[in-house]
């Protein structure tokens, strides 16, 4: 349901000419590098402190391909794919410019794509 909602939101923003959706930032108690911590909160697992490190997301769930709903892991960042445009995948992540946002990003250097379900 969340991925459908964010895909619809991304589509609306894209038609408006901007993919810069924003929401409240760093969850309370997260470290200064907080993308993994944000995603743990997003998926309802704030107690999983091991996931506060971005690279550790490559070890959970099951391997998948780039698709809406997939977690994309880079060496030092993690996010979730929430949409797709002609320019690329729309990724929602925390600590992207020190805030939470959804924007088109390249997945070229990703080290893993993971599915939780």
Secondary structure layout plus pairing:
Layout lengths: L1 H14 L5 E3 L11 H8 L19 E2 L7 E4 L2 E9 L2 E6 L6 E6 L6 E4 L2
Antiparallel strand pairs: 1-6, 2-7, 3-4, 3-7, 4-5, 5-6
Word description of this protein:
The protein is α+β, with helices and mostly antiparallel strands and 117 residues long. Helices cover 19% and strands 29% of the residues. It has a seven-stranded antiparallel sheet with strand order 1-6-5-4-3-7-2. β5 and β6 form a beta hairpin. The chain is globular and about 35 Å long. About 11% of the residues have low confidence.
Question: What descriptive keywords fit this protein?
Answer:
single chain; alpha+beta; seven-stranded antiparallel sheet; 7 strands
- Could you give the order of strands across the largest sheet? 1-6-5-4-3-7-2
Give the end-to-end Cα distance, rounded to a whole number of Å.
13 Å
**Helix/strand-derived class?**
alpha+beta
Sheet with most strands: 7 strands, antiparallel
N-to-C SSE string, H for helix and E for strand: HEHEEEEEE
Number of domains: 1
Question: Radius of gyration over alpha carbons?
Answer: 13 Å
Q: State the oligomer.
A: single chain
Share of residues in strands: 25-35%
Q: Helical content, roughly?
A: 10-25%
What is the 3D form?
globular
Quick description:
By secondary structure, the chain is of the alpha+beta class. The chain has helices at residues 2-15, 35-42, and strands at residues 21-23, 62-63, 71-74, 77-85, 88-93, 100-105, 112-115.
């Amino acid at each position: 349901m969340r991925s459908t909602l964010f895909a619809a939101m991304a589509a609306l923003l894209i038609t408006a000419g901007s993919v810069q959706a924003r929401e409240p930032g760093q969850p309370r108690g997260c470290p200064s590098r907080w993308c993994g911590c944000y995603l743990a909160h997003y998926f309802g697992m704030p107690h999983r402190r091991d996931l506060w490190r971005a690279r550790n997301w490559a070890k959970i769930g099951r391997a998948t391909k780039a698709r809406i709903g997939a977690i994309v892991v880079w060496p030092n960042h993690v996010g979730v794919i929430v949409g797709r445009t002609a320019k690329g995948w729309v990724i929602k992540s925390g600590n992207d410019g020190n805030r939470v946002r959804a924007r088109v990003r390249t997945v070229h250097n990703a080290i893993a794509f993971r599915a939780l379900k």
